[in-house]
Amino acid sequence: MQPIGLFSVVRRPILLGLILLVMASGCASTGGTVGPLPFPGATPPLASPISAVTPAPPVPGAPNADALVETALSLRGIPYVFGGVDPQTGFDCSGLVQFVFARHSVEVPRTVGAQFRIGLPVTLADLRAADLVFFSTTGPGPTHVGIALNRDQFIHAPNSNGVVRVEPVDNPYWHARFVGARRVF
Fold first, then answer.
1. Helix count and strand count (H, E) for the chain
2. What is the layout of strands, in order, in the sheet containing 144-148?
3. Which of 157, 137, 151, 153 is closest to 94 using CA atoms?
4. Tens digit of pLDDT for each residue in 142-157?
5. What is the arithmetic mean of pLDDT over 8-34?
6. CATH fourth-level superfamily of 65-183
7. How many CA atoms lie within 13 A of 81 on its CB side?
8. pLDDT exceeding 70 applies to what percent of the chain?
9. How far is the C-alpha of 72 from the C-alpha of 115, rounded, in Å?
């Protein structure tokens, strides 16, 4: 049996201690930015009045709601076809929504139920162009979808006897069946 030297016994705990010290110092940082603090008692700088009223710039690459609405309006008169997803064969309601949004590089799911789960909820009073409007027509919950043109009208592919068309949101039939709206962008 070889004798264990003092150096080999002491070296391991020191090395282990150094490793733990380095790791702990990395975890101790707050991740915040370091900067000078104001002089004690100094008043904070006033916000620029221009920055308070200047709207945020548009998000690069975000779709244009007016252009999306124009695309939807260009499809008026296309017949309703259950499962339809393009202008050559016809549209069902969610196929129309998916097709129009895809033309503006916005991916939406295929079905009404899945479309109802995306975006942010919007009240009828806050409805704006390109919001999705949902109705309960054939069962509980959202079963029909359209695209808002503004606060008062929407475009949709209504039923097997119809074509893509514009209707008022406050039409008694649609108003009574309204279940919600979603803002996708």
1. 6, 8
2. 120-122, 178-183, 132-135, 144-148, 153-156, 165-168
3. 157
4. 999 999 999 999 999 9
5. 44
6. endopeptidase domain like (from Nostoc punctiforme) (3.90.1720.10)
7. 12
8. 67
9. 17
**170 CB-near residues (< 8 Å, 6+ apart):** 152
**Which structure tokens are listed for 80?**
């309703």
Beta bridge mates, 86: 90
Two tokens, residue 104 = 């503006």
State pTM to two decimals.
Answer: 0.68
**Paired tokens of 78:** 């296309």
What per-residue string of b and e applies to 102-122 under the rule 16 or more CB within 10 Å gives b? eeeebebeebbeebbeebeeb
* Rounded Cα distance, 159 and 81, in Å: 8
DSSP string, 70-107: HHHHTTTTPBB-TT-EETTTEE-HHHHHHHHHHTTT--
pLDDT digits (tens, 9 = 90+) for 25-81: 333 333 333 334 344 444 444 433 333 333 344 455 678 999 999 999 999 999 999
CA dihedral (8, 12, 17, 23) positive or negative: positive
pLDDT tens digits, one per residue of 96-114: 999 999 999 999 999 999 9
Question: Phi, psi (5° rounding) for residue 154?
Answer: -140, 160
